[in-house]
Amino acid sequence: MMATPASVLPSGPEWSYEVKWDGYRAQAVRNGSTVSLASRNLRNITRQYPAVVQAVAGVGADSFVLDGEIVAVDAGGRPSFQALHHVSLDGVSIVYYAFDLLHLNGRDLTRLPLDERRAALRTVIAGSGVLLSDPLPGTPAQIATAVRRLGLEGVVAKRRRSAYATGRRSDAWVKVRFARRQELVVGGFKPLRDTFDSLVVGYYDGTKLMSAGKVRSGFTPHARHELFARLAPLQISRCPFTNLPTVGSAHWGQGITAEEMKLLRWVKPRIVVEVSFTEWTRDGSLRHAAFVARRDDKAAREVTREA
Question: Within this chain, do residues 33 and 119 fall inside the same structural domain, yes or no?
């Protein structure tokens, strides 16, 4: 089940609110002594997160399916999405925040109201290494202020009486990001010696890949090297973006002119990255875009413009 993006939290007694954790969405499944983890696109990620497997193995039930988020916590106790790619760093620990219980000991719970699923979840994970994503107290305004102050990514509002809508985006869950971020597909890059100077990124509008401009900042040397190693074998001769080149001059330096097109290298649109930015420009590009991290938990075709 996926949340619908919004700019303002809904209010009313039918809503509850949780932290929007900055990590990898994952379902944790236990069947007897076997524990497995599946990403948002149902890729098996069990071997990548042994600490989460150990925590889930400590849950006191024979079979269940949890929905939640794998989160890297840095030495200061703060969630760090980038740390998920550098788990060997000192002080980084990997935890699993569960926010839903879909199946328990052979019983399908998805049609139960959220409040009932939460109550069952709280009971079943008690005493294990799995952490509970608790509902937040206070009004939407108070919650937003507190979450902003802590520097967390955002809040998810959920209808207390809602069932679990498997495999689709539902307005029973509404997500509000306080730091503007967007998942985007890499469709090209500007080369620089043996690596890249900037990425050309975009999103899907139906079957069309629309350019959202360039991303030049935010790359660590490690991230740049890792990304280029993945991009190099994907090179193609034809531009995959429908709306390039940008008409006229580059707006705020983010557009792509016909002259610059000659310098760019194109790649198959397979790799998804997360980008922070200040705003969308009038020509549909990102202003002050910066790389946050690579997202290998989402298929490129699923990436659409969210805000």
Answer: yes
Please compute the mean of the pLDDT values over residues 109-119 and round it to a whole number. Answer: 98
Picking from 61, 69, 52, 10, the residue whose alpha carbon sits closest to that of residue 31 is 61
Is 307 within a domain? no
Task: Write down the H helix ranges in the chain.
Answer: 50-57, 114-125, 140-149, 221-231, 258-261
Burial class (CB in 10 A: 0-12, 13-18, 19+), 51: middle
Residues sharing a CB contact under 8 Å with residue 137, sequence separation 6 or more, in sequence order? 143
Tell me how far apart the alpha carbons of residues 223 and 292 are, in angstroms, rounded to a whole number.
10
Phi, psi of 149 (to 5 degrees): -60, -35
* SS3 state of residue 228: helix
Residues serving a catalytic function are 20
For residue 128, the domain's CATH number is 3.30.470.30
* % of the chain with per-residue pLDDT over 70: 94
Q: Two tokens at 250? A: 């580059």
User: Do 15 and 30 lie in a common domain?
Assistant: no
Q: What token pair was written down for 121?
A: 């979840």
Same domain, 189 and 274: yes
Q: Following DSSP, what letter does each residue of 55-78 receive, concatenated?
A: HHHTSSSSEEEEEEEEEEE-TTS-
- pLDDT, tens digit (0-9, with 9 covering 90-100), for 206-249: 999 999 999 999 999 999 999 999 999 999 999 999 999 875 54
98-59-127 Cα angle (round to 5): 90
Residue 271 lies in a domain: yes
Find the domain containing 175 and state its range.
1-21+135-179
**150 located within any domain:** yes
Q: Is the pLDDT of residue 250 over 50?
A: no
The total of structural domains in the chain comes to 3
pTM: 0.74
